[in-house]
Every structure is written in structure tokens, then in C-alpha cells.
Amino acid sequence: MRGADTFTESLFTMRKLEDFVPADHPLRAIRKMANAALSKMNGLFAGMYEADVKGGRPSVAPEKLLRAMLLQVLYSVRSERQLMEQVQYNLLFRWFIGLSMDDSVWVPTVFTKNRERLIKHDAVIEFFNEVLAIAQQKAWLSGEHFSVDGTLIQAWAGHKSFVRRDDDDQANGDGGNFKGEKRSNDTHESKTDADARLYRKGGAASE
């Protein structure tokens, strides 16, 4: 029997936000580690808001702010406005930040202003250092270092300088007539620059 295309919204729900997050979701481990780092920053947070202790409206909790900034990096959210839009309807984001279903989402300008305070007091750097310290304690880091340079440098060679490796006659001549010939770095080399290599960008080969 065909089901009816109806929508009936419940007035109450007994489910928690955490119930919507899969048990093996990677954000669970990240949130646990982030909370451990944030718990060590209470002294810094207290000093940041010490001047406001006499009154005024409560600011955005710095812990929630840093979790939101972490989500922005992990999910490559381009702007605070887009991040707030995501938090509005994304239950995973709400759970990670620490907002309930009924909590209002921050205005983007308020989020930006509070974020600037974190940056001013180096809270973001301290958060990174605390996470790094936890990783070191768990032996997740390595002292080995390596660098990879993927820069393409224009070679001192043109297409016409590439000739077949196994053709001595062509090596002494001109490789300019290569139309219809399949060329690759395995079969051809430049007679003017031995380090030059062929690569393909778009629909044409280049060197």
C-alpha cells in the first residue's frame, strides 16, 4: 500500500542531539580531545573576561566559539555567515559546538567580534598547543621530518628538443616533426636539458 505524503511534527521529542550522531563518527573523538584541551584553558578564559565581571550580557562561551571555529576549518566553511547558517539546521554541528535544538544561533557579526577577542588573547594558539600536548602524551607525533617540493619549473627545452631515447639518428637531428607520434618521458628525452620532463596540462602536452 502506498504511503501518504504527509508531515506531522511532534510537539515533544525524547531524543537527544547525541542520538543523531553515529557512534563511529570521527567528530566524536575530535570533540573529546578538544574538550580535554579546553578544560585546561579556564585560567586564560577567566582573564579574558575579567574586565566584564561587573555586568553586561554574557558573551558567547569561548569553548563553544573555539569548537565552532574548529568546525569551520574541518569542513572548509568559507565565512562566518555560512557557518551560522550551517549551525542553524545541522544537528551534527549543534551537537559538536554544544548547542541544544532550542538554542538560538549567534548573529554572524557577534560571532566575529567574539572571535577577534580570542585571537587578541592568543586563545587560538593556546588551544592548538594544548591539543598538540595531548597528542604528544599519547605518542601520536613523530620526530621525523621530510619535505616535498612539487613546484613545476620551466625547463630550458622546447618540444622540438625531445627525441626518442633509442634512436641515435634522431638524437643527432631535429625532433621538430613529432605530429602523430606518441611521446612520453619513458621513451623520449630532451637533447638540450636532460632534466626536462613532459607533462600534460589541459588538453596539450608541455615541458
UniProtKB/TrEMBL annotation:
Bias type Basic and acidic residues, positions: 179-198
Stored Pfam families: DUF772
Recorded superkingdom: Bacteria
Region (Disordered): 166-207
Coiled coil ranges: none
Molecular functions (GO terms): DNA binding
Stretches assigned to the Transposase InsH N-terminal domain: 16-117
NCBIfam families in UniProt: transpos_IS5_4
PANTHER family linked: TRANSPOSASE INSH FOR INSERTION SEQUENCE ELEMENT IS5A-RELATED (PTHR35604)
Family membership: Belongs to the transposase 11 family.
Protein's UniProt name: IS5 family transposase
